[in-house]
Amino acid sequence: MTPKPKKILIVGANFAGLTAAIQLPKTCDVTVVDPSPDFEWIPGIHEILSGVKTPQGLRLNRSQIVARAGHRFVQDQVTHIDTRRRRATTAGGDILPFDGAIVAVGGISNNYHIPGVDQHTWPFRTVADSLAIEKRMEELQHKPAPLHVVVVGGGLSGVEALGELLRRYRHRPEISFAMVEASAQLMPGFPKALDADLRRMCQEHRVSFHTGESVARVTPQGVWLASGKRLPSALTIWTAGLAPPPLLRDAKLIRPPHTWAAVHQTLQSRYASSIFVIGDAAALPKPASKQAFNAIDMGALAAQNVTRWLADESLKDFKAPATPILLAFGDLQTYLVAGKTVLASKTLAGAKEGVYQLFMAQTAPQPGLQGVPGALRRLRKSWKELVVPGLLSIKDFRATPDCRPLKLL
Ligand SMILES: Cc1cc2nc3c(=O)[nH]c(=O)nc-3n(C[C@H](O)[C@H](O)[C@H](O)COP(=O)(O)OP(=O)(O)OC[C@H]3O[C@@H](n4cnc5c(N)ncnc54)[C@H](O)[C@@H]3O)c2cc1C
Prior knowledge:
- Strands 5-2-1-9-21 form a 5-stranded parallel β-sheet, with helices on one face.
- The model has no long low-confidence stretch (mean pLDDT about 90).
- It folds into 3 domains: about 5-40 and about 55-110 and about 240-310, 3-Layer(bba) Sandwich (FAD/NAD(P)-binding domain); about 115-240, FAD/NAD(P)-binding domain (3-Layer(bba) Sandwich); about 325-405, no CATH class.
- It starts with 6 loop residues before the first strand and ends with a strand.
- The chain contains 11 helices and 26 strands.
- The chain has helices spanning about 15-25, 45-50, 60-70, 115-120, 125-140, 155-170, 190-200, 245-250, 290-310, 350-365, 370-400, and strands at about 5-10, 30-35, 40, 60, 70-75, 80, 85-90, 95, 100-105, 110, 120-125, 145-150, 175-180, 205-210, 215-220, 220-225, 230, 235-240, 240-245, 260, 275, 280-285, 325-330, 335-340, 340-345, 405.
């Protein structure tokens, strides 16, 4: 008699979880759970603020992708994981037993328990968040001037959001922007040259930067800083950091002193051998940055390791690839950061767009002719909004070299 296929449960199906689902063989009995019907290309949500991207362009249908991989998709939220009895409970009341599970639930917006953040700021984590901010900007710009917008968080997502707001609104003198960052520089952890160049880009626009400043409270009128400064704000965008979803603590996958779910380098939980935690939710012995490319690679390895563990085979270690970061600052600049090297060029926007197009084309549920209309829609939009200006700047590049390495400070 052939043995029954092992049951593998995947909780969360974005970069990490969906990659794991695609990589797991059809011979496994795989169930994938996520509350939302669509995969979202989160690294592109800032472009909704300027209208360069539409929500449809950043989404792919999860149930079709999972079905094509030969597995079952359940649109629901996992509310509890019993790691000892190996079963998960969903908000819809399903009990999902498993032999091995991959937990890829990402992170949620961190309010740091600061008064007013939940009530008076706009989170920036999903397509829906970005769309809500875009709609609010539309409403506010029709009110009497002036309009103050504050972006809290000067990391990758805050800077990219500010860039898109400037792309759309920098020609409107009644709209001004402020950015607050707790660290001494914008883009903490990256070369300081990036901070200097971003500030230089903003010199002729109405942007003020408040680095080394933390937020004490937020009210409907504005943002109060711990230093006593008050920044008037009609719209406060919160990009100040991530916190783990409560499910991880509830399942005891996070235990002190860790803030995230501690795993071995093999991605296997330190506290439950049947569980592999991947993507933004995981804390590895050799830390990996919370980036989509790491989440994708962890998804691929977790698919291998969970099947190896179920077959009593030895597990492989995760090795974070040295992938350069592409940071878009609206249509003002795009940066490529590889270690300590920073290149600035508007033409790099095309490379960032290429990464997105390639991933979406490879992951789209309808291969072949069925997928063509969707791919064409995305390409047409990118061509008009990004590639054509990119090519124009290649021409400019001949006259005045556009691509320049930033001097390290
Ligand atoms: C504005 C912005 C720009 C970014 N730009 C870049 C970039 O340029 N390059 C880059 O590499 N990275 C970028 N990142 C980071 C990147 O998006 C994340 O690292 C990546 O999304 C992490 O993937 P993940 O699968 O671990 O988690 P997520 O993508 O957050 O997915 C988690 C999934 O789990 C699901 N889930 C959560 N709780 C449950 C539950 N209880 N039950 C079932 N499902 C659940 C969610 O619905 C979601 O689908 C950016 C992030 C932001 C916010």
